[in-house]
Write the C-alpha cells for this entry.
Amino acid sequence: MYMDTREFIKSLVASLIPSAILVSGSWFSFMKLLPKRKAPPFRPPGALAESEFLAKCIRCRRCGQVCPNETIKYFDTLDPVMAGTPYFVPREKGCILCMKCNNTCPSGALEPISENPDAILSKVKIGKAVVDKNICNSFNGFVCGVCVFACPYTNIAIWGDTWEQPVVTDKCVGCGLCEQACIHYPQAIRVVHTVEEKEVTIEKI
Amino acid sequence: MRKYRILSRSLVLILMVVLVFYNLYEKKAGQIGAEIEIENSKVLTAYDYVFGDNNKPMLFQGDFEGGLWSFRFFALSMSDPLSFVVSTVTALEFNFTMFLSILIPLGLVLLFGRFFCAWICPYSLFAELGNSIRKILSKFGIEYFRFDLPKRTPLFYLIISLTLGAIISIPITTLIYPPRIFTEGIYHLILSGFITSGLIFIIFLWLGEIIFSPHLFCRRLCPGGALFSLLGKWRIWKIQKIESQCDSCGVCNPACPYDLNPSAGYFPSECDNCSLCIDACINNNRNALKNVIRFKV
C-alpha cells in the first residue's frame, strides 16, 4: 500500500473533519447531559455500568423489539451519546422481568440472566424502591397496599406491615411495577438508583 | 446483473419494514385488549390475516427480530462485522458471544469481499438512483462540478474515529453508517412516527451526492466499506478483463462508482462487484469483462 506524503496528509485531514464533527457533537451533548448525569436513566435488567454500557451497546434496537410489555423506549437520535440506547420510565411502564431483552442482546451490554425467579432476584439490580412516608396513603390513615400486590416478589422484596404499610427490603430489584401501580400522585413509592451499594435516599433527590 | 442487485437490495429494504411491523403485531397480539388497535390499523389487520390464528400458536412467534444492523432468525444471530469491531474497540473488551454472531457475515466478506455494498446495503440503491437522476439532468444540459475526497479517506476515517471513540468511550464511527441508520430509522418511523436525525443526514447526503459527486459516501467515507475492503483482500469473487476481447475504449472507467480503473484490468479490494462496468462495456457480447469466481489469483 504505497502512499506519498501529500496524499497521506490529504486523507488524514479529510477523515479528521467528520470525526472531529462527531466527537465534538458527542462531547457537546455529553457536557449538556452532565448536570443530568446525577440521575441516569433506568436501563433494562442486566445492564452493565453506565459508561461501559454506552461503550458496548451497538444500538441495534433488538431489546425493544422483543420486549412484550413495550416497556423499553429509546432516546431521541439527535443526541449522539445516548442516541438509540434503551431505557424505561417506571412510572409509565414497569419492567415485568421476563428476561427476553438481555437474552437477545448481541453485544453483551445487557448480560444474559436466566428466567429462574431466584436468578432474577440475585442478579437484576435496576434500582431500589423507596417509600415516601409523608404522602403514602397507608402511612396516612388510608389502607392501600397496591404496591405490595403489584410487586412480583411480594413478601420477599416488599411486604405489607400493619394497615398494608409497605416495607421495602434489600432484595428489591427495582422493576418499577410498584411505582407504575401507585395510586397516589405524585408517586409515594419510587424507584431510585443504587450507587455502589450505597442507597440514595429520597431526601437526596 | 444490475436487475438482480436492485431486486436483492429492494428485498432487504422491504424485509426490514416487514420485520418491524411483524414485531409490532407480535406484541399487540400478545396483549390483552389490543384487538381494537389491530382492527384500526390496516397493516396489522393484514398481519392478523397471515400470521394470526386463534386455534394455533402464532406463526414464527418470537423467532425473528432486528434489522440489517443485527438480527436473529430462530437461534441464528447475525451482526454486522463493523458492529463487533466498534463495540470491541470502544469497550476494549472481547465478547465471545458477539464474535460468534459475526462469523457468517465475516466468512462471506472474506470469500466475496465487499459484496455487502452492492447486494445488501439499501443506501447504494439510492446512490445509484441518484446517479441516474444526475445523468438525466446532465442530458438537459445541467452540468454540475464533481467534488472528490482523497483516496484513503475511508480507512483513515475508520481508524481515527475508532481511536477517538475509544478515548471518549462512545461508538461514534457508526453514527454515519447507512445500514445502522436505516435500521433505526425504519424502527422509529413505524413505531414512534418521527424521522430520526440519521435519516435526515441520509436525505441531505443523497441530495448532495446528486449535485456534487455521485457515490461520494460509498467511495470516500463509509467505514463499513473500508473494513470490508481490508478484509476482502484475498477474496475469490472478482471481475476479470479478457485482454483479447477488449478494445481499450475506456467506456467502463467513468461507469465505475469507486473510481477504479476497469479498462486496465485493475480490480482491487475496493471493488464491490457491482458490475456497472460490465453493463457499460460495448463489447459485452464478447465477454470483454466478466464476473468470475476464481480460487487462485
Summary: Chain B touches chain A through 56 residues (CB under 8 Å). Residues 86 and 112 of chain B are 22 Å apart (CA to CA). Strands of chain B lie at 64-66, 70-73, 76-79, 237-241, 289-293. Chain B has three domains: 1-66, 73-232, 236-297.
